[in-house]
Amino acid sequence: MLTYLAAIDYENVIDYLIVNWGINVTNNFIERFDQVLILLSKNAGMFPFVDEVKRMQKCILTKHNILYFIETEDIIEVITIFDTRQDPRKLTDII
């Protein structure tokens, strides 16, 4: 499940890739994103915690994107897709 912020992040990445890198790179990103969601659903525990109190974990999606998520008993909630080229202090406001 994507949070509102994660859905916006996802759309922004897709828009950026289409405009700047074309449909093939965009399709590769979508395929990678889908693969990561499958991995999360099978074994989210394989990814490291960034905040054990909040139960926040991360997964490197691409070299420029990190997916942050929280696993509960019922769902895996994707919090954000963070562009690693941004100021990392921005991430502390999000998570």
Could you explain how this protein is built, in words?
The protein has a single domain (4-94), classed as RelE-like (YaeB-like fold, 2-Layer Sandwich). The relative contact order is 0.17. The protein has helices spanning 4-21, 23-43, 89-94; strands spanning 49-51, 56-62, 65-71, 76-83. The chain is 47% helix and 26% strand. A hairpin with a 4-residue loop joins strand 3 and strand 4. It has a four-stranded antiparallel β-sheet. The chain contains three helices and four strands. Helix 1 (4-21) runs antiparallel to helix 2. The protein is α+β, with helices and mostly antiparallel strands and 95 residues long.
Main attributes?
globular; alpha+beta; 4-stranded antiparallel β-sheet; YaeB-like fold; 95 residues
Show the helix and strand layout.
Blueprint: H1 4-21, H2 23-43, E1 49-51, E2 56-62, E3 65-71, E4 76-83, H3 89-94
Antiparallel strand pairs: 1-2, 2-3, 3-4
Helix pairs in contact: 1-2
